[in-house]
Amino acid sequence: MRRSPGRAERLRRVRPAPAVAHRAVRVTAAACAGFYTFRYGLDRPASATYALFAAIALGVLARVEGSARTRARTILWTLPAAWALVCLGTVLAVHSWAAALGMVGVGFAVSYGSVGGPRMVGLANGLQLLYILPCFPPYSPEALPQRLLGATAGLLLLAAAELLLWPEPAPPDYRGRLSRAAHALAELADLAADACAVRAAAPGAVTSAADRARARLDELRFSRVPVMERPAGAGAVDRALTHCAAALRYTGPQVLRILRLARPYPGAAQLTAVTAQALRAAAAGLPRAGPVPDTGVLDRELAAFDTARAFDTVRAADTVRAADTVRAADAAPPERSGRLRPALGTAALDSAEGARFVVRAVRVGRHAALPPDETPADQRPGPFWYAYDPAPLLWWRRFRANLTPRSVAFRNALRTAGALGAARLLAGGLDLSHGFWVLLATLTLMRTSAADTRTTLRPALVGTALGAAATAAVLLAVGEHPLVYALALPPVMLIAFTAGPALGPAWGQGLFTLVVALVFTQLAPASWRLAEARVVNVAAGAAIGLLAGLCAWPRGGAQDLRRRTAGLLEESADAVRETVAVLTGTGRPGGALRRARNSTLLTEAMYAQYRCERHDPAGDGPNWQAAVLAGQHAVRGAEPLLARIPPGTAAPHRGGARVLLRHADEVAAAFRRQAAALRAREPAGAAHPAVARARAALVAELDGPPPAPGTDGRVPLHAVDVAVWLAGLLDDLQQIHEPG
User: Fold this and answer.
1) Can you give the pLDDT at residue 311?
2) Cβ atoms of 250 and 356 closer than 8 Å
3) Which pick of 163, 444, 466, 694 has the fewest CB atoms within 10 Å?
4) Is residue 605's pLDDT more than 50?
5) Which of 459, 527, 516 is nearest to 493 (CA)?
6) Which run of H or E residues covers position 714?
7) How far is the C-alpha of 328 from the C-alpha of 354, rounded, in Å?
């Protein structure tokens, strides 16, 4: 069960953040300025209505974040869409069935547009309202110019308010976060290079640098980044920044591994020092005005180190614990230095590969050309396939890839479109007064799962009922005195838009009920029955939202996250087996890695939705993030191995190839056992022994058998690279049933 928040936590939630108060001031100023100008200055009620609700749509229902200029620019960019939606709603209001069909189409298109990135996600609800408002009677196409004038004025006033009223400083963008993380890793890599060159730093310096690097890498998590600043768009720049973050998170543990295994190793020291230089260059090149980094020096050092390793082979007995030394103790006796050397070289190589990936991602993010031989034609699509395609094609691929019931965005769009269409039919069929409140309630109260919708439903209905009671009392007490309502509107609106986000849906719905009553009493005479209509409409809209959540994927992302994660682990198993077969020359590429990569993208999307839903931490089951990371490690670990190791050279002798294939089969079997455990909903820890046995079998296999005949007792160190990767995958699987 959830622990109840303490008093300090409750007080923190009650006190609105300054940004919330500032936004409420801007929205109130823009909405009231447009409303009063058209209602009392120009006597155009239709324009006044659209000016007010356009400002509320983009200022309250939508999430427009970023700097003041960014928010103003985003609002201005929505003007063409706003005009189109107002025109479409005005035309289709001729019949209820036409308006409902239009609502289904608009609801799906606007919601599905969220696959284009977080900015579309934030704008979705606001854009929906710009169609909902004009699609209700009266059908008056002659009023379209006034409606467009009002909507345009409302959005322009809101954009001006963003620039002039309390313009907030620009939040740190994702490039800055990446730059700080790369710089912190560069400092840590310098210390690792010194350790391999027998220039040991003070223990406190290493600990401080490691803590600083972990903190900077933790800042890259999307949960710590404002929604609008997340690089989740379909363009090449956003994809490159996301790849850069993943590569930094991969490189960090490799550098820490070098520090744990550090022994005198001049080659590893030199390569790690160059890795630090590359990371520092990437940090300087991430800002748009910085120098574009290059991988020339790192490429040459990697090639030289790899060539040296080709001659620096060890007997099979010395590779016994290559996989196990990934987690070696800090203090190993001197006589084990020879055994630690292969794993140390692998860690240095992996960290350099990660840094090179970071630099290449930065180059793509800066629109700099990649070398002609960056991705060989026989290996496409490579990790930077998007760098070769135009932006429209990338967007089309993103939209096309999500046109499947497996896509979270597609299913949410269907759910939203069906619910809004049904709400429009109900409002039209019952001829509800102010029927657009039904759709507005459906839009704002419906969540991605039935459980979340029920959680929101009760406080929203209670708040609406209390707000309606207050509204009825005000209408009965004041009567027909529009001046009183005009004077009361700005402070009530300011309180509503400030207290709603801070106190929850009950306060938000209750105060918004009072706001809309103060607005409509200035447009036409109203009685206490306006409050009654508000309660009925909100209840109808909430019921439709709840039914939609029950009928269309009621468990939201949680239901399919288990199935999708199990599928990811199964496809990762195929990718692991195929990768080792290609590296040992016993098989050819068959598309398993590509399928696993696509599965990773879908699973990441489902996990992102799951993290946005309310759920009981005690009942979450396995560590879902660890499961997703296991699939990512399988894909992103295979890609550099395939790029670095020519096919068939990981184990040129048949005996070595058989050993590696046996390891790959054992790892793939562990992935499949873990997937079966997820599908069977086995309790936490049920699959842990099987994974542990698989890892023990891998280490024992490397430890036990003598060299294969005809190998003169030697094996290539590429086999060590593959073995360490396989052992790391089993380590990832072990974490799935550990506390997350």
Assistant:
1) 58
2) no
3) 163
4) yes
5) 516
6) strand 714-715
7) 21
Strand partners, 703: none
Residue, of 494 and 692, whose pLDDT is higher: 494
CB under 8 Å to 602, separation ≥6 — which residues? Answer: 406, 407, 564
Whole-angstrom distance, CA of residue 655 vs CA of residue 652: 9
Q: What is the pLDDT of residue 399?
A: 84
**Hey, what are 725's tokens?**
């990767």
Half-sphere exposure of 40 (CA within 13 A, CB side): 10
Q: What secondary structure does DSSP assign to 131-152, as a single string? A: HHTTTSSS--GGGHHHHHHHHH
What radius of gyration, in Å, describes the C-alpha atoms of the chain?
30
Query: Burial, 112: exposed, middle or buried (Cβ in 10 Å; 0-12, 13-18, 19+)?
Result: buried
Whether residue 152 is predicted with pLDDT greater than 90 in this model: the reply is yes
What is the helix (H) or strand (E) element at residue 715, kind and residue range?
Answer: strand 714-715
Write the burial class of residue 588 (CB in 10 Å: 0-12 exposed, 13-18 middle, 19+ buried): exposed
Is the pLDDT at 4 greater than 60? The verdict is no
Among 148-162, 236-250, 493-507, 559-573, name the most confident range.
148-162
* Phi, psi for 710 (deg, rounded to 5): 85, 0
Q: 156 is written with which tokens?
A: 């322009």
Alpha carbons within 13 A on the beta-carbon side of 386: 25
Give the chain's mean pLDDT.
77
Cα torsion at 351, 354, 358, 363 (round to 10°)? Answer: 110
Give the whole-angstrom CA distance, residue 384 versus residue 623: 30
Q: Where are the alpha helices (DSSP H) in 165-232?
A: 174-196, 203-218
Residue where the block lists tokens 């009928």:
551
Packing angle of the helix pair 436-445, 450-478 (nearest 10 deg):
140
Report the interhelical angle of 236-261 vs 266-285 (nearest 10°): 150
- Give dist(CA 13, CA 5) in Å, integer: 10
Helices 203-218 and 174-196, interaxial angle, to 10°? 150
Measured CA to CA, the distance from residue 133 to residue 125 in angstroms comes to 12
Residues 373 and 387: their CA atoms lie apart, in Å, by 13
Other CB atoms within 10 Å distance of the CB of residue 129: 23
Count CA atoms within 13 Å of residue 130 on its CB side.
35
Give the CA diameter of the chain: 102
Mean pLDDT lowest among 48-62, 580-594, 695-709: 695-709
Cα–Cα distance list, 511 to 123, 221, 432, 508 (Å): 23, 35, 22, 5
Return the exposure string of 545-570: e unless at least 16 CB atoms fall within 10 Å of the residue's CB, then b.
bbbbbeebbbebbbebbbebbbbbbb
Please compute, for residue 479, the number of CA atoms within 13 A of its CA located in the half-sphere on the CB side: 0
Query: Token digits for 691?
Result: 């994974």
